[in-house]
Write a structure and sequence with these properties.
This protein is α+β, with helices and mostly antiparallel strands and 150 residues long. It contains 3 helices and 7 strands, in the order E-H-H-E-E-E-E-E-E-H.
Length: 150
């Protein structure tokens, strides 16, 4: 499953890039799932070849997900890839480019659920929407903070 989301932000590219890799901002943006960083980089800015393990409630279950920053080209692009978690595969590319005096932030998230046919059914019925809404909410939070100057 592939989700692509474009978010225009009235703030410099470098600011948007750094906010998007800020562990503390991610935690603040996910109050609905109670996500918290429990291992690896647990506060501040995550960088190249660093990991973070998240724990949060999704679909009524406490789940953990460990990601590694596998691509890092500040301030244009970084990628986090799942090392451990409930997905069969998961990568999230974060792209940043200048646009109309601000930044166009583009997220490309690709994931697949385990369990073959049952997993593909889950992707179509619930996971795609859940992941898109999760990403939209996170990006709205990044946009709000970036444009506020906080």
């Amino acid at each position: 499953m592939r989700i692509e989301l474009k978010t225009p932000i009235s703030a410099p590219v470098e600011r948007c890039f750094d906010l998007s890799r800020c562990i503390d901002l991610h935690v603040a943006s996910t109050h609905g799932t109670g996500e918290r960083a429990i291992a690896g980089i647990t506060t501040g800015l995550i960088g190249p070849d660093e990991t973070v393990t998240w724990k949060g409630r999704h679909f009524g279950l406490m789940l953990t997900h460990t990601s590694l920053i596998t691509v890092y080209d500040r301030p244009r692009h970084f990628q986090d890839s799942m090392l451990r978690g409930v997905f069969r595969s998961y990568t999230h590319d974060h792209y940043f480019g200048p646009s109309n005096g601000g930044t166009l932030m583009t997220d490309v998230m690709e994931f697949s659920a385990p369990l073959a046919l049952l997993g593909r059914l889950a992707e179509a019925l619930v996971l795609e929407r859940h992941m898109r809404v999760f990403l939209e909410h996170r990006n709205a939070f990044v946009k709000q903070v970036a444009e506020s100057g906080e």
